[in-house]
Amino acid sequence: KKGAQIVGVTSGGELKKQAIEHEFDYIQIPGGMPPRAALAYSFVPLFRIFQFLGFLNESDKVLIDTYELLKDGVSNYKDLDDNDALALAQELNESLPIIYSDALMMEPVNLRWRGQIEENSKMLVYGNLIPEMNHNEIVGWEHIAHLSGRLTVVMLKDKEDNNRVKKRMEIVKDLVMDQALSVIEITTIGESRLERLFSLVQLADWVSMYLALLNQIDPTPIAKIDILKSKLSEI
Q1: What is the per-residue pLDDT across 163-177, written as a single tens digit (0 to 9) for each?
Q2: Does residue 22 have an active-site annotation?
Q3: CA distances from 94 to 102, 104, 229 (A)
Q4: 83-214: which CATH number, 3.40.50.10490, 3.40.50.620, 3.60.15.10, 3.30.565.10?
Q5: Residue 191: what are its φ and ψ, rounded to 5°?
Q6: Of 71, 135, 159, 231, which one is the catalytic site residue?
Q7: Confidence tier at 49 by pLDDT (50, 70, 90)
């Protein structure tokens, strides 16, 4: 109504119907898969759109380099020997993972880790951002005798993390070390921001898959979400 430029990204259905009806541009992506398994299909069109509109200065080389890094990751993570994803899944298994990271660039990666473990592994996982957790949550670590030795802290790190946040993370590590089963520090790999972010996104995906396999769980179904949607549709 206000004359804004509209571009849709759709696998079909109602959004495509609206795009055709109102004559706005759309990019169609393959359908028939869980949204969490279609990240590349949903991300690359957005990247291209922002490139075209001039909001991104990155060249196509960034996408190509990221693709190559992820391809190498597949080769590494599918081999059961010397497999970092499998080793991490084994360490997280039968514990409550807690994911901490910087609140800036690493926030979406933190969210991806939690979502993938919850949906694929069918496990509870908790997470927070630094410095936010320093304002309240850090105090909650004082009285957790009932959870002592059952919490595995995963700290996601990147070379561009704020220097003060880096220091905060070291202090947090020292403060929770005695109560946690273990504290695992994981740093991004790659040159560009896109490579580095997706390096940990990919690791999360594989870790969550291996957690499901360790517990003999099919990672695809999301039964409780389906039940919730069904119940809500009856209202």
Answers
A1: 999 999 999 999 999
A2: no
A3: 26, 30, 29
A4: 3.40.50.10490
A5: -95, -60
A6: 135
A7: very high
